[in-house]
Amino acid sequence: MSRGPGSLAERLRWARERAFVGRREQLALFREALSGAPDAPAVLYVHGPGGVGKSTLLRRFADEGRDAGRPVVEVNGRLIDPSPAGFRAEAEAVGAAPDTVLLVDAFEHCQGLEDWLRDHFLPELPGRTLVVLAGREPPGSAWRSDLAWSEALAVVPLADLAPADADRLLELRDVAPVVRDRVLAFAGGHPLALSLAAGVAARGGGSGWEPTPDVLTALLSRMVGEVPSPEHRLALEVAAHAMTTTEGLLRAVLGPERGAELFTWLRRLPVADWGRQGVYLHDLVSEAVDADLRWRDPQGYEEMHRRVGHHLLEQARTASPAEAMVAIREISHLKRYGPMGEYFRMSREGDYHEDVLRPGDHDAVRRLITEAEGPESAAVVDFWLERRPEAFWMYRASATGEPVAFMTWLRLSEPRADELAADPVLAQAWEHTLRAGPLRPGEHLMLARFLVHPSAYYDISPVLHLMQLRICADYIRSTALAWSFIISPFPRRWEALMEHLGHERATALPWPNGHTYTLFACDWRITPLSIWFDRTQPGALTEAPARPAADAPAAPLARAAFDTAVRDALRDWHRPDVLAAGALRTTRMVTGQPGYAPEHAGEMLRELLSDAVDALRADPRDAKLHRVLATTFFHRVPSHMVAAERLSLPYSTFRRHLQRGCERVCDILWQRETAGLPIPSAHV
């Protein structure tokens, strides 16, 4: 291949090769695998921390593969739909030639696909296919425990550059010899840190260049301050905030005149890379730039967030279904910071994927609902499986394809007598609709009736995140949507997010399994999409969390409200933050304790609840109630059905003991609340 002047591809290849340093052992191993020798590995698994040079190494592998005459397919894990179907769609060209080289970068973003790749996708590939997976995490133990894979797999840990290679990198970046020692002492052999330091030192460090304690924050501040114009600075900040950046996004944020110019500038940054969906910055760089803007200019940050979000909303509304889901994921990515961040940050994706309901799934759905909610809910699910099977979305383990969760997402345009009779929750949704704002001709409502994942029942999880994405997609793409309803047995846990998304408490319905299901409702006729998105502002980086209302005086709870609050608190026992915001926070039994302080209310309530449950052991007649309560609320079982099985009790007996146990705990705590008496000790 010519390395002189020629095509742009040739010039870029020449520049990459000239700038590449070190990694001799990794290159030798790749060349051996590329040769197709009988004992050469078929899969290379490269792993190392962020910024250590995995992407640079894969680009070199791609060049070497093409030089050898092999077709090269490149997949970026951060940009794909993290599901088997999404991965196959990106890698579909692999099967076209038997000697393809498949390079998968940023594998940590779809790490959950690891078992599926190992057991299903990779064994299906033609014999001479060479695969390189590169991510931050090392391979799971299942690779090594399988004798066949132990022979076909080469694990390639990637560490910092050797001192000589690090010095050579600085030389290639035109860092003067007089400052190289200082830069090396500062950045070590970390390639990204070296590149950032070199970018500053080469532009005017001179012999007086001094390192600061934090390479990523200090050097990025210098780099952001040296961009050519405020528009370039804003383009960098957009790229840091968004999952990917396109010319269209830059035009939407900065105006139509300079989108192409700024996009080209972003692509040339040493901390940027690109794929089919657009340009993206290295994760560590994105975090530093985004945090800097949010701290430095909160108002500017909010305006940038709003413009980026409105552009993505329009994409989600008008694109094809598959492309719309990409836009929905990118909208969710924008919400990873701020008070709602915990609901949107997923540290790992790919273990599960969304699918339609298939003919063989009905038994699995019945098993999941019975385990999670009991036979009464199972009867309702049976009705909807028969009446509206298209309303079911399945969530499968990517490694096996087995169903682990499902959602029933109903779209209804009129109340029907048999549906109202079969599903009391639906009846309440229609009652609220008719009372608060009846449907007009052509309108419909949507009800998230079941969001069932027994092992993480209504907890923040990757599966519930996938359900959220599906729900938000229909919010955005549905025409004539009047009302939407979301159900939760743990309203305090989800109320902040529901309010954030424009949903308010509408109704509550006690259920035979011991839960009270709350419906959150939103009238979309008074909630335009633009206003709905604008509620998602992350807020200032330094904003302090609002003090709980516990500090304000509150009227004493009546007995019925007190008992309801105790039952809610038992269910939230593992979450002191939720307890600290609950109705019991202002009761005498909490505020009257020695050493009371509002910030300790959650822990004080945990102790009060634990003592009340333990007090049941003092009476042999209540010992069985203690076992049921402790197992159900303190041992993190996913559902009442599982708790009953663990206790070897019939479900009906379990429910009876649970009801009686809750009543006894309410009695004990009410006595403490009204008389100021200590809780009887089980250890006396």
UniProtKB/TrEMBL annotation:
Q: Provide the Orc1-like AAA ATPase domain boundaries.
A: 20-81
Matching InterPro entries = AAA_16, P-loop_NTPase
Taxonomic lineage = Bacteria, Bacillati, Actinomycetota, Actinomycetes, Kitasatosporales
Keyword presence, Isomerase? no
UniProt-recorded Gene Ontology molecular function terms = ATP binding
Keywords from UniProt, A to Z, are:
ATP-binding, Nucleotide-binding
According to its UniProt record, what is one Pfam family this protein matches? Answer: AAA_16
Species of provenance: Streptomyces chilikensis
Protein name, per record: ATP-binding protein
